[in-house]
Design brief:
Chains A, B: It comes from Hyphomonas pacifica. Chains A, B: GO terms for molecular function: carboxypeptidase activity; metal ion binding; metallodipeptidase activity. Two copies of one chain form a homodimer. By secondary structure, chain A is of the alpha/beta class. Chain A is 34% helix and 24% strand. Chain A folds into two domains: 294 residues, Zn peptidases (Aminopeptidase, 3-Layer(aba) Sandwich); 131 residues, Glucose Oxidase, domain 1, CATH 3.50.30. Chain A contains 13 helices and 14 strands. In chain A, helix 5 links the parallel strand 4 and strand 5. The longest helix of chain A has 21 residues. Chain A starts with 7 loop residues before the first helix and ends in a 17-residue tail after the last helix. Chains A and B meet through helix 3 and helix 7 of A and helix 3 and helix 7 of B. Bound molecules: zinc ion (ZN) (4 copies). One zinc ion binds next to loops of chain B.
C-alpha cells in the first residue's frame, strides 16, 4: 500500500505557487511573509520523515494500545521520550482514570446440523457469557429500529442479530448511522429479553475481519454479551437463517475494572510574544486492541507531530504556542478529551484554535472552520490558501474532532481538515488497522495542511472567536 | 463481490456464433450437430443456477471440510444426497483412510519490551508446541534457500523465520515457488537445531489473514511446530527485527491420528453405446478449516456438477459416460486422487479424458491439452471452438489438475482449462475463502467450458490417446 510519489520538480513548482499573494482584502489577508512561510511549510511536508517515522515507531514498538491497559501506559512513556527527543517543550503526561474493559477470549459457532465456526469480535463493554459460553437461537433484524420495535419479552432466551449494512462515503456519514446498531444492540436486546446480541460489523469491506468498538454501557460493562460478525460471517448467518432455525454458541470472556490509569501526553512548540495563547492540534494515542492502531489513530499523531516539527524547524518561533495533545482513552468514550477540558477548564479562553486528526491518513479534500461570525474572513483566507493544494473550501460548521468536542462546546474555535474516508472503514477498529495501510504521500498532504493552518493561526495572532458585531481591530496583529 | 452480468441479447448472439461450423479438416472437425449442441450448452451455462447453488449450499450448510474430519464426512453424505436429487446415476462414496491432523489452538506474541500479539495460523502437519507454549528468539531468512544454507546447529533453541514474498501471476506460477518455503521450513529449521519455524504467508494480499496449507511431514506430523504469519504481521516482525532482537512466544495445539476416514464421492451421467468409456471431470470436496472452501474448491465442484447437469439435460444421452468425482483429502497430499487411481487401476484404459477444476472460479483464459500426438488435431478442434468465447489456445502440456495427476501418469489424456488466478491467492487457504468471493458470471464461463469439452469428448468418441503413427481411423466415430 505504500507509495513514494515525491517529485522534486513538483515540489519546487508547489513552493512557487504557494507563495503567490493571498487575498487582497485588507486586514484579513495574509501578510506576504506569513504566506510565503506557509507555502514553504507545505512544500517541506512533502518530504516529511518525522511524522511518518512517529507512526511507524509507535505502531511497531508499542503495537495495540487499548485504553487503560499496560500497553497504553507504555505508549505514554514512549511518546514522552519521543517528543522530548524531537525537541518539544513542556512535555508531560496529564493523568486521569477510566473504567477498564478488555476481552480475554471470544468464539462463536453454529451448532447442530450445520455446525461451523463464525468469526466474531466482542464489542467494547461486552459482558462475559456465563462460564463455558451460552447457546441460543438467533432472531434476525434488518435494523436496530426493527429490534427496538419488537415486543418486550419477545426475545426471551434468544440472541438478537442485527444485519444492517453500511455504505462507503467520503465524509464517513455512513458510520454515524451504522454505529447506532453497535451502540444500541445490547440495550435494545436486553429490553426484549435476549441473552446476547450480534451485529454485522460496522465496516465496508468483505474480508473475514470483524470490527470492534465501544457500545453503550454503564461504567465498564454493557447490558449483555455483544459481538460483531465479520461481513462474510454475517452473510453466512443470514444464508443459514434462510434455510431454517440457527442455534449459536457464544463464548466471550472479559476483564473489567472501575478504575484504570490513562492520560493525555502533551508537548509544545512554545510561542514568542503570545506564548500563553494556544493553538491545539491533537490525535488520540490509544487504539483498539485488534490492530496496531495505525490509521486510528497513530496516523493522526504522526500528522500533528510532523506538522508541529516543521513549524519548530522555522528560523523564528511563531508568536503563539503550538500545543500537541496525544489524547488517551478516546476509543472508550472520548475520555481523554473530557479530562483535558476538565483539567484546562480555567484556560479555555487561551485556546485560540483546536483540531484533532482522527479519521485515518487519507488525502484532505475539504477544510471546514467553526469561527465567530466576525472571524469568517480569516477562515476564507486560510481556505483560499489551501485550495492551492487541492483542498476545497468547506463551511463554517466544523466539528473539530472527537476529543476537542468539549473545547468546541466551551467556545473554542475549531477546524476540521476533512480526510477522504472512503477506505477508512475497511480497516478501522479491525485487526487490519496496520502500518502498511497508510499511504505516505496522502499522509504527508495531511501534514502540509496541519502545518499551514497551525502556523498561520499561531503567527497572525488572529482572533477566531471574533463575533459579527466586534470592532474591526483584529486580535493583536 | 457478486455480480450478475447476464445479458440476454449477448446470450442469443453467443448461441448463434457458437453454432458456426468448426474446422473443415476431415475426421477431426466436429460434426455439425455436435458443434451446434456444444454451442447451446455454452449458451445455457450463462444462466446456470445448479452449479452456483451447489457451491452456495455446500459452503453454507457444511462450511469448512477439513480432510478426515467429521465435517468432511458430513459433506460426503450431503453430496451423495445432492447428486441423487439432481438425477446423477451410480452415486456412491469410495472410502479410503488418511493420516489426520487438525489445529486446536494457535497463538503467537512478541514478548519483552515490544510485547504484542501476532496473527498466525499453524501449517497443516505442524507439531504442537510443548504444553503452555515455547519462547525463543527469532532468526530471519530472506528465503528457504538461505535457511537451508545456514550451518547445522546454528539455530539451536531459535525460531527460524522465512520472510519470502510471493507475487501475483495469472497462471499461479508464483505459488509453486512460494509454497516451497511452506513445505520445507520445518525440515530445514529442524536440521539447523531450531525449535519452530515461522513463514510469511504464502499469499498475495495485505490483510491480517494468514494462509495455511500442508507442509512436508511423515504421516500426520511434521518435524517442528510451524506457522504462517499474515503479511502485516510479517512486515511487523521484520520491522521489529530491524530494531533489535525479538523473542516470540508460540503456542500451537494439534490433534492427530494415523488413520481417519475420507472418501471420493462419485456420480455419473451414464453414456449410451460407449457407456463403459469415461470422461472424468472432478474437483475436491475437502477444504482447509479456516474458510468455507468456496474458491478452493467448492467452486470446482459447482463447475463440474453444473456442467454435467447441462449435458444431462440434453434430449439424448451422450455416447460415453460423464463421471463427476468429488475427491476427498486433496489438501493434505492429493490423497483422494491417489486412492482413486489405486481403486480404479484396472480400468485406467477406460478413462478417455480427465480434468479437475481446482483453481478458483476465475475466467478461463486458455485451454491446454495433453493428448497423444495423433490426437492433437482433436485438441485443435476443441480449442478452436473455445476461442469463440474468448479462451486462448494453449499447448499440449496440460497437467490436468492435482487429483488427476496419477491418471495422467497412468496414460490418461487430460485437459487444463486455465483459470485466471491473479486473485486466487488473495483468498486461498485463508479464513477469507468464502462464498462472496465467487463472481457468478466468471463461474458460469467455467461451466460453459467444462460442459463443451466434456460433451464433445463424450459424444464424438474420439481417441485422445492416439499415437502419432496410429492408423487414421478415429476412435469409434
Ligand atoms: Zn479514532
Ligand atoms: Zn476509533
Ligand atoms: Zn484445491
Ligand atoms: Zn488448496
Amino acid at each position: 500500500m505504500k507509495r513514494n510519489g515525491l517529485r522534486i520538480g513538483g515540489l519546487v513548482a508547489l513552493a512557487a505557487m504557494l507563495t503567490a499573494p493571498a487575498l487582497a482584502e485588507t486586514g484579513t489577508s495574509l501578510p506576504q511573509d506569513i504566506s510565503e512561510t506557509a507555502g514553504r511549510l507545505m512544500a517541506a511536508a512533502a518530504s516529511d520523515t518525522v511524522g511518518l517515522k512517529f507512526v511507524e515507531d509507535l505502531t511497531t514498538e508499542i503495537g495495540p494500545r487499548l485504553a487503560g491497559s499496560p500497553a497504553e501506559a507504555r505508549a505514554r512513556v514512549w511518546a514522552v521520550n519521543e517528543l522530548k527527543q524531537l525537541g518539544f517543550q513542556n512535555v508531560r503526561v496529564e493523568d486521569f482514570s477510566i473504567p477498564y474493559w478488555s476481552r480475554t477470549h471470544e468464539t462463536a459457532e453454529v451448532v447442530g446440523s450445520n455446525a461451523q465456526p463464525l468469526v466474531i469480535t466482542a464489542l467494547g463493554g461486552s459482558k462475559a457469557t456465563p462460564e463455558g459460553g451460552l447457546e441460543a437461537d438467533i432472531v434476525r433484524f434488518d435494523s436496530l429500529s426493527d429490534l427496538q420495535a419488537a415486543p418486550v419479552g419477545s426475545l426471551t432466551g434468544k440472541i438478537a442479530y442485527i444485519d444492517e449494512l453500511m455504505y462507503k462515503t467520503q465524509d464517513g456519514t455512513g458510520y454515524g448511522l451504522a454505529v447506532r446498531k453497535r451502540s444500541g444492540c445490547a440495550n435494545a436486546a436486553a429490553e426484549k429479553g435476549a441473552v446476547a446480541c450480534l451485529i454485522r460489523s460496522v465496516g465496508t469491506q468483505s474480508h473475514r475481519i470483524p470490527h470492534t468498538g465501544i457500545m453503550s454501557r454503564d461504567g465498564a460493562l454493557g447490558a449483555l454479551p455483544a459481538a460483531a460478525l465479520s461481513a462474510p460471517d454475517a452473510d453466512q448467518l443470514t444464508r443459514l437463517l434462510e434455510r431454517g432455525d440457527v442455534r449459536v454458541k457464544l463464548d466471550i470472556g472479559v476483564q473489567s475494572a472501575e478504575a484504570a490509569p490513562s492520560g493525555n501526553v502533551i508537548g509544545e512548540i512554545e510561542g514568542s510574544d503570545l506564548k500563553d495563547e494556544i493553538v491545539l492540534i491533537g490525535c488520540h494515542l490509544d487504539s483498539w486492541d485488534l490492530g496496531t492502531g495505525a490509521i486510528d489513530d497513530g496516523a493522526g499523531c504522526g500528522i500533528v507531530v510532523g506538522a508541529a516539527k516543521l513549524i519548530d524547524a522555522l528560523p523564528g518561533k511563531p508568536r503563539r504556542t503550538i500545543r500537541v495533545v496525544l489524547f488517551g482513552s478516546e476509543e472508550v468514550g472520548l475520555l481523554g478529551g473530557q479530562a483535558y477540558a476538565r483539567q484546562h477548564g480555567d484556560e479555555l479562553d487561551k485556546h485560540v484554535l483546536a483540531a484533532e486528526s482522527d479519521f485515518g491518513a487519507g488525502r484532505i479534500w475539504q477544510f471546514q472552520t467553526r469561527f465567530g461570525e466576525g472571524a469568517k474572513p480569516y477562515g476564507d483566507t486560510i481556505k483560499a490558501m489551501l485550495t492551492k493544494i487541492g483542498v476545497a473550501e468547506g463551511n463554517n460548521e466544523a466539528g473539530g474532532g472527537p476529543d476537542v468536542g468539549p473545547l468546541r462546546r466551551g467556545g473554542v474555535p475549531v477546524v476540521t481538515p476533512s480526510q477522504d474516508g472512503r477506505d477508512y472503514f475497511d480497516y478501522h477498529h479491525t485487526p487490519d488497522d496496520t502500518f502498511d495501510k497508510i499511504d505516505p504521500e496522502e499522509f504527508r498532504q495531511n501534514i502540509a495542511v496541519y502545518a499551514a493552518f497551525s502556523y498561520i493561526a499561531a503567527e497572525t495572532g488572529w482572533d477566531f472567536r471574533k463575533a459579527a458585531d466586534a470592532e474591526s481591530a483584529q486580535g493583536a496583529d
